[in-house]
């Protein structure tokens, strides 16, 4: 037996890190392939969110609107309700108020009509639509 045969080579750093990477990848794959049925939970959560009232019809003035979470709800004419994203299409800031028939963004002065179209730039694209509907006296996501 030679002198080298009796010495066990210590685990070097590169080998240890490679082994840890393989173990982490295996755990990630196992978690991704598990039979957790969260899809039914997420679809039922989405359904509940669609039925949850955003606001009351009485809270949205004719010729105006309100901001509720990530949605601007407007009523351009009596009984006609629309929903839009609060994210300004210019630089991604959040619009923060509806005044004098315009949806206003505080960052760079863009304004939008109650139908989501641009009234005054620098934004050049309309606000993204959020489908809403009237359910009783409430406005909910459609």
What order do the helices and strands follow? HHEEEEEEEEEE
CA distance, first residue to last residue: 80 Å
Rg measurement, Å: 27 Å
Q: Reading side by side through the largest sheet, how are the strands ordered?
A: 5-6-7-8
Task: Summarize the amount of helix as a percent range.
Answer: 10-25%
Strand content: 25-35%
As residue ranges, the low-confidence spans are 26-48
Mean pLDDT: 79
Structural class: alpha+beta
CATH fold type of the domain at 53-141: Rieske Iron-sulfur Protein
Could you give a short account of the major beta sheet?
4 strands, antiparallel
* Morphology: flat
Q: In the CATH hierarchy, what is the class of the domain at 53-141?
A: Mainly Beta
Number of strands: 10
Q: Spell out the CATH superfamily of the domain at 53-141.
A: Rieske [2Fe-2S] iron-sulphur domain
CATH architecture of the domain at 53-141: 3-layer Sandwich
Number of helices: 2
Region (Disordered): 35-56
Protein name: Cytochrome bc1 complex Rieske iron-sulfur subunit
Keywords: 2Fe-2S, Disulfide bond, Iron, Iron-sulfur, Metal-binding
InterPro entries: Rieske_2Fe-2S, Rieske_2Fe-2S_sf, Rieske_Fe-S_prot, Rieske_Fe-S_prot_C, TAT_signal
